[in-house]
Amino acid sequence: MEINELRELLSIINSENEPVGIRVHLVKKNEDDSESTLLADVSQELSDDLKKIFKDTINRKFFENEELNFSNISTALETINSAFFYDIDEFPDKLSVLQDFDTWEDYDEFSFSNDDLESIKAILITVGNQGRYFTIFKHIYAVTIVRQDKMLGFVPIGNRFEKLNSNILQINNSIDFIYAADSLIVNNIKTLSAAYGYKEIVKNQAREKIQMIGDLDLIENLDELTQFVENVKYAKRVLRINPESPVMQLAKTRIIEFVSGHTKLSRKIRFNGNGDKIVLDTDVSKVITIGILNDDYLKSNLTDLDYESEKKAEIDIEDD
């Protein structure tokens, strides 16, 4: 997905020619660990305020932000000013509520007498109308709920402060995920990793890429790479390998010749006794091999210097 496609999906929030409403649903965790989606009855004033704060947030992040890095999550480098299109086949199980969710379905309403506010795990805020809409997903953190039994709240009633006698659900203008047209947009990758199993998904996908690498018959001890991706930092590097990249289409002899003839890479990668396979014996050799398979290394025709393409920085490999 390109940024212009995303903007088109979100553009309903700025429409002056179509009705733009707000619907709020709560994802509740049940005692048996299953989840239920409940409709939240919100006042018109609260609905208007929600629409305003998220309109401002979305415009600032996705429409007015010319420096935004928007890319596929499988190949992206994580930067501060970024958002990601979730392009991985393995969808997070803990976000399956989004795939099953139909904002126009007749859900039961959340009841303060029957439902515990502390059981709420996420807020779904749908913006738009039945013809065009998207859903904002907000994860509920422990600090999101102000618990009246954990603090003494001063509530102004007239000229007097009264005690807070119920829990409060706080909502700010942050956005964790957006779901639109069956597409997941990740705005907060830290939350995706910490609460929704993304780290394990990255490792699973990296293991599949390693099986593909094995088909090249290029690496003598492929199990070293399998162990290496147990660290999600390196699993992400493997995940970025593109099966259609020019390097992955080469015969292994071409790759061996490239490494052997490279003045810097050849100092960090060893070969087996026959000289026809790479031996992964250090973390540096593993990182470099992943980079080679991802076509990260190139030579500038202008300066005759070697570069690492991801950062466009001159390769600087120190000797051990």
Structure description:
There is one protein chain. The chain has 320 residues and is α+β, with helices and mostly antiparallel strands. It folds into two domains: 3-196, no CATH class; 201-314, no CATH class. It has nine helices and 17 strands. Strands 2-1-5-6-11-12-4-3 form an eight-stranded mixed sheet. A three-stranded antiparallel sheet has the order 15-16-17, with no helix packed on it. A two-stranded antiparallel ribbon has the order 7-10. Strand 13 (270-271) and strand 14 form a beta hairpin. Mean pLDDT is 87; it is low at 300-305 and 311-320.
Which descriptors would you attach to this protein?
320 residues; alpha+beta; eight-stranded mixed beta sheet; three-stranded antiparallel beta sheet; elongated; disordered C terminus
Characterize the biggest β-sheet: 8 strands, mixed
Distance between the terminal alpha carbons, to the nearest Å? 42 Å
pLDDT < 50 runs, ≥5 residues: 300-305, 311-320
Measured by DSSP, the beta-strand proportion falls in 15-25%
- The radius of gyration is 25 Å
N-to-C order of helices and strands: HEEHEEHEEEEEEEEHHHHHEEHEEE
User: What class, by secondary structure content?
Assistant: alpha+beta
Number of domains: 2
Q: Mean pLDDT, nearest integer?
A: 87
Give the tally of β-strands: 17
Order of strands across the biggest sheet?
2-1-5-6-11-12-4-3
Question: Helix coverage percent of residues?
Answer: 25-40%
Number of helices: 9
Shape: elongated
